[in-house]
Amino acid sequence: MGKGYSAAIASNPYIVGSFACIGGGLFGLDISSMSGVLSNNAYKNTFGNPGPNAQGAIVASMPAGSFVGALAVSKIADLFGRKWTIILSGWIWVIGSILQCAAVNRGMLVVGRIISGLSVGIASAIVPLYQSEITEPRIRGRLVAMQQWSITWGILLQYFVQFGCSYIDGVASFRIPWGLQMIPAIILSVGMLAFPESPRWLVDHDRSAEALEILADLHGKGDPNAELVQLEIAEIKEQVRFERTEGAKSYLDLFKPGIFRRVTLGMSLQMWSQLSGMNIMMYYIIYVFQGAGLTGRRGNLIADSVQYVLNVLFTIPAIIYIDKWGRRPMLLAGTLLMGFWLMLVGGLQGGFGEWGTVDGDRVWVITGHDGITKAVIVFSYLFVCSFAITMGPVSWTYPAEIFPMRVRAKAVAVSTAANWVFNFALAWAVPPGLSNIAYKTYFIFGAFNFAAFIHIFFMFPETAGRTLEEIEDVFAQGHIFTAWKIKRDVGKKTLNDVVKDKHEVHEVESHDEKSPA
């Protein structure tokens, strides 16, 4: 640990690339911390029986904080490094959890959720960034995709804690789960002390010797002369040198030619991941199954838990094969499938449902059609499976790998902030939507998925299997509206290619210096 990190940990690509995913799990914990109490009478009584609009506002307070956190992370990550920013996010989460656990009214609960949201916003932007900068291209997509898997685990574990505590009478039924959720954050902040800093950040701060040492431990078994290590350090140095000539680091860089295109892609993908409708199925699944005709608190909770288990299981194939399948095919297949399942859910709800009253609330509900109720539940499960194996992992991987170093932290932060803007809007809007336009809500989200398919098909190039520096060549190809024309071998380089390119650059520079003014 004299290096400031454990070389043994750094030498295992899966440990060094996955541990920080606990930061993603914090988002999952928050989702279940809310969805698991929506039918809890102790929660309702403590916070004044919130109606659809008030409940939407309570849920939306977390993504509101996350939006601020995602934007703030760019400055923090560039100043203090990726590692220490992750550590900071964990301690902020602890503060937010304490306030939520102790909340005695809506105001205190909302403040606690906003602070927790700051943590989630920071972690959701910095963790994929850290992973993309510290893992080798061969498995980068797989490890960044684990961010989504950690979210699904956070949802699942917290939901079962909520489910178990639902048998407790009184406020302990929701305070205990809200208090326990600080434990993973403590593990994250303490554990990250044994992990290395991003080599790309170190090179960008003129600490190349440290960067080489870390790269050797990461990818060369301690040997700084290993081919992959030399390839990466050469590419990183060359890229940083080139980027420094492009101008100062600022948000204005995001509007430069070539960069703005990528910013819109990163923001759009995060937007589509929210507009896919996954928000309904995660935050408000109790309302969905209630409208399908599944009555009884315990039965609803059990059906919900099945969905969360499927979410975890179906993310695994995506993690394993994301670098083999590629980003584009996964996104295209996912958006089509999700749109299809949502249209079926909306059609069945519209065809067999009617306005009724459930637990004193006005609800569009299916009654007397047991087969249709089961079909809606099954299609909801299939929707979640489709998201888990496609859009879920890629929506974190793609924005983390498409930006050059000089704007990467800011661009990833802006992309992630787009996620939280739409998360905030939908978290607030869905409860009133379900209580007013009912089944038509599903048609809206289904249409969003089909729109996403068209956008992705024409404008999103493939990035799988390339170093972050090689991705520059992908976007240099152009094809802004014909992304499918960019082949998967574009940008691939060997160490000899990098050395040759570097030699040619220096020859040109030398020639320019000798030329008369």
Can you describe this structure?
The protein is mainly α and 517 residues long. The chain contains 25 helices and 2 strands. It has a two-stranded antiparallel sheet with strand order 1-2. A hairpin with a 2-residue loop joins β1 and β2. The radius of gyration is 24 Å and the shape is globular.
Topology:
Layout: H1 7-10, H2 13-18, H3 22-35, H4 41-46, H5 52-80, H6 82-102, H7 106-134, H8 137-165, H9 172-180, H10 182-191, H11 199-204, H12 208-219, H13 227-244, H14 259-275, H15 278-283, H16 285-291, H17 297-313, H18 315-325, H19 327-352, E1 353-358, E2 361-366, H20 370-389, H21 391-401, H22 405-436, H23 440-459, H24 471-476, H25 495-514
Antiparallel strand pairs: 1-2
Helix pairs in contact: 3-7, 3-8, 3-10, 5-6, 5-7, 5-22, 6-7, 6-9, 6-10, 7-8, 7-21, 7-22, 8-9, 8-17, 8-18, 8-21, 12-13, 13-25, 14-21, 14-22, 14-23, 16-17, 17-20, 19-20, 19-23
